[in-house]
Design brief:
18% of the residues lie in helices and 34% in strands. The chain has 394 residues and is of the alpha+beta class. Among the domains are: 140 residues, 2-Layer Sandwich (Gyrase A, domain 2); 81 residues, Aminomethyltransferase beta-barrel domains (Elongation Factor Tu (Ef-tu), domain 3, Beta Barrel), CATH 2.40.30.110. The strands form 5 sheets. Strands 12-13-14-11-5-15 form a 6-stranded mixed β-sheet. The protein has a 6-stranded antiparallel beta barrel with strand order 16-19-18-17-20-21.
Length: 394
């Protein structure tokens, strides 16, 4: 079980003793009730470690649900919008789930461990929703968040690092595949997944072996310049590779207070995850109507002139506000100023040009900047090594 910190009254992950020693900035955040590092030593240097060598991020606070039983596949097909039957054993699938109005509740990864055995990993707690949706299905749902410790091991030397730790034949693991290894008598599950858009893996172990796993990993990765990374560096990576963040780029339909603040998969660019060819799923009727009648909003990626991030900016056209920025960052590798924005339809088509109204402060002086920006059709960072199999040894 996770321990409670007397200093923060937040839970500590199984890796906390090692993380605390390395967190020189003493900059901490709260992820689902766990104390987690925002940054260890320098955000940009942590980011460059991720893009040049190996960066390690503590995934333990991720909400993890074990779902088993004879009805598990039809249950999951009712729960999420994609066709779960297409996810093979020892494979991982990205999935989203909606309420009956077709509004997004959350996204996550679905691990198929065996025929009738899945693990769902989600950013938000979903216990109540999962149980409500189980009515009429013969399934068993267990929250095993505290029973599994996890690390994201990401970057060009991630495969080399894990191989040096003794994980043989890892280079042949395909993207979204998973494999089990023996680690001091415990099962170590390794999946070729991640939130960075780079070559990378996620490793999952029983909490009792977490500190030993950390020590072995960093010893093996020393020659590859392995570094821990915090949430700020991860945020840069996920924006430049085009990944949305729950609670930042969209608000769960369970949490919205004001009408119109939730979003559908179509309004977030996630239509590719909605499969109308499968049987009934939550939100299907509403999403069919939206496909027929059109959406209210469009989600888009912007390339903005200059190097001032457009955090919380308005997007203007002809002096009128037509969109708002949800995430923004200056990307060091791509040398691009990027932002995710939600537009009122019909605005936001690829190639359309706008102006970002950016405010930034220097020495207590606020400056208003009107920066030209353009909607682009794909993320700026998408290296071939992300998909290459066998993985390239660096």
């Amino acid at each position: 079980m996770s321990e409670l910190s007397n200093d923060t009254m937040l839970l500590e992950t199984p890796f906390h003793s090692r993380i605390k020693e390395l967190c020189g900035l003493n900059d901490w955040g709260n992820w689902s009730g766990y104390t987690t590092p925002n940054a260890y030593f320098d955000v940009e240097l942590e980011y460059f470690a991720l893009r040049s060598t190996t960066g390690v991020f503590d995934l333990s606070p991720m909400n993890k649900y074990r779902i088993t039983g004879p009805d598990v596949e039809p249950y999951l097909n009712r729960l999420v919008t994609r066709d779960v039957s297409k996810i093979g054993i020892n494979r991982v699938g990205y999935a989203i789930w909606c309420d009956d109005a077709g509004q997004l509740l959350d996204d996550g990864t679905l691990f198929r461990l065996s025929k009738n055995d899945y693990r769902l990993c989600a950013y938000r707690r979903a216990t109540d929703w999962l149980q409500w949706c189980a009515l009429g299905f013969d399934v068993n749902i267990v929250d095993e968040t505290d029973e599994i410790a996890g690390l994201a091991v990401q970057g060009p030397t991630s495969c080399s690092t894990l191989t040096a730790m003794g994980l043989t034949d890892l280079e042949h693991l395909k993207p979204f595949g998973m494999k089990n290894y023996d680690f001091e008598g415990e099962s170590l599950m390794v999946s070729r997944t991640g939130f960075t858009g780079d070559l990378g893996y996620e490793v999952w172990i029983a909490p009792e072996k977490a500190e030993l796993l950390w020590d072995r990993l960093f010893a093996a990765g020393k020659q590859f310049l392995i570094k821990p990374i915090g949430s700020y560096a991860l945020d840069i990576a996920r924006i430049e590779t085009g990944f949305l963040q729950a609670g930042v780029d969209f608000v769960s339909a369970e949490e919205v207070i004001r009408p119109g603040r939730s979003r559908s998969p179509f309004e977030l660019g996630l239509a590719w995850l909605v499969d109308f060819n499968k049987p009934l799923f939550n939100g299907r009727k509403a999403l069919l109507a939206e496909r027929e009648n059109g959406s209210r909003y469009r989600f888009a990626l912007l390339d903005i002139d200059g190097n001032k991030p457009a955090d919380h900016s308005f997007i203007l056209k002809g002096g009128k506000q037509v969109g708002t920025v949800t995430s923004a960052v200056w990307c060091p590798t791509a040398k691009s100023n990027l932002a995710f924005a939600q537009f009122e339809m019909p605005h936001g088509a690829v190639g359309e040009k706008f102006v970002a109204e950016i405010y930034y402060q220097r020495e207590l002086h606020w400056t208003r900047l009107l920066a030209p920006c353009t909607v682009i059709d794909r993320p700026v960072f998408n290296p071939a090594r992300r998909r290459k199999t066998p993985a390239i040894a660096f």
